[in-house]
Design goal:
single chain; globular; binds flavin mononucleotide; alpha/beta; 12 helices; about 325 residues
């Protein structure tokens, strides 16, 4: 397998580089709007995720001063290497947003070219951006000449089976300064259904010289090396399978996690949520709770009861009780 790692660092523990930024490790938490906020990214990073990418930032919202947007921007030093991911259909707004975000000192910027949501893709942002080759060229030429940090892209295979243009887009990206491509190996029309096409990830690896991160359908930690060996990609991104299972980055199997470890990790996550969001932290933690507790021996009723707590200490005590630890 060629991991495109050459030179004096080849024997160090660096897995690959994004521009000049060393990435250590081969599995990265995929950005997920509404899920991968700073507390969850911090937790996954601690568990072994090799880098952190923000939930997508809507350039339009930032420029229009949407009231909640600034809240999602602060990140912790422990998340580094850290990227903000931006989406929009307008080149200058994306570039202006990236310039604005530089005040937080991210390590790199990622451009979302994969969001399949109708309201995003149908206005030519997210996966819709892949349909306009000239705009992609202008965007990457402009943004990479403007910023001093590397710029990466997260793409899909294309719009649908009749428009599989990921290789053409990849060449445009590479020719215009893009430092790394993450490929969610589905089309926009597939959204999150069907099977991710790992063969296409291998084709992308063969087609470009910049690093490639493969994404789609990793369910278990043993599939991390499986996808890397199958495709030759530099690393993988894990999305849905990390929700309620951050241990996937420790290469641990869910079923091997002891109740004690499960409790301590949930408590750690809850504490990070409360620290970041204060009183709203416990409410926002509920979106992770169900997944954490979806294990044998925990009844539906116990999960429902966990949703009723509004005091973090009482919730922690309750979790300790139902997990018998
Ligand atoms: C709830 C949810 C939100 C997502 N939000 C984003 C996002 O903000 N930016 C992005 O690039 N991808 C987003 N994605 C796509 C994931 O990053 C990933 O590409 C996709 O889930 C496939 O990986 P998986 O099979 O490991 O889940 C989202 C996916 C989900 C399920």
């Amino acid at each position: 397998m060629d991991t495109k790692l050459t030179g004096s660092h080849a024997s160090s523990n660096v897995t690959f580089y994004i521009g000049k930024i060393p990435i250590i490790g081969n599995a990265i938490l995929a950005p997920m709007d509404g899920i991968t906020d700073s507390p969850f990214r911090q937790l996954c990073k601690k568990m072994g995720s090799a880098a952190s990418v923000s939930e997508f930032v809507n350039a339009l919202n930032l420029i229009n001063g949407h009231p909640h947007i600034e809240e999602q921007l602060p990140f912790s030093e422990s998340e580094r290497p850290f990227a903000y991911q931006i989406f929009d259909n307008n080149v200058s707004r994306i570039v202006d947003t990236a310039k604005y975000l530089m005040k937080y000192k991210p390590d790199f910027i990622d451009i979302n070219m994969g969001c399949s949501n109708r309201s995003v893709a149908n206005r030519g942002a997210g996966a819709g951006l892949m349909r306009d080759h000239k705009k992609v060229e202008l965007l990457f030429k402009t943004i990479t000449n403007t910023l001093t940090v590397p710029v990466t892209a997260k793409i899909r295979l294309g719009w649908d089976v009749n428009e599989l243009n990921f290789l053409e887009i990849a060449h445009i990206l590479e020719d215009n300064g893009c430092s790394c491509i993450s490929l969610h190996a589905r089309t926009r029309v597939q959204q999150y259904g069907g099977k991710a096409d790992w063969d296409s990830i291998a084709s992308l690896v063969d087609a470009v010289t910049i690093p490639v991160i493969g994404n789609g359908d990793i369910q278990h930690s043993n599939q991390i090396t499986e996808l890397i060996s199958y495709t030759g990609c530099n690393a993988v991104m894990i999305g849905r399978a990390a929700i309620g299972n951050p241990w996937i980055f420790q290469k641990e199997k869910q079923e091997q996690i002891s109740n004690q470890d499960r409790y301590l990790t949930m408590k750690d996550h809850l504490d990070l949520m409360v620290e970041y969001y204060e009183h709203r932290g416990i409410i926002l933690f509920r979106k992770h709770l169900k997944k954490y507790l979806s294990i044998p021996d925990i009844s539906k009723e116990s999960i429902q009861k966990a949703f009723t707590f509004t005091n973090p200490d009482q919730l922690a005590q309750y979790l300790q009780g139902i997990l018998h630890c």
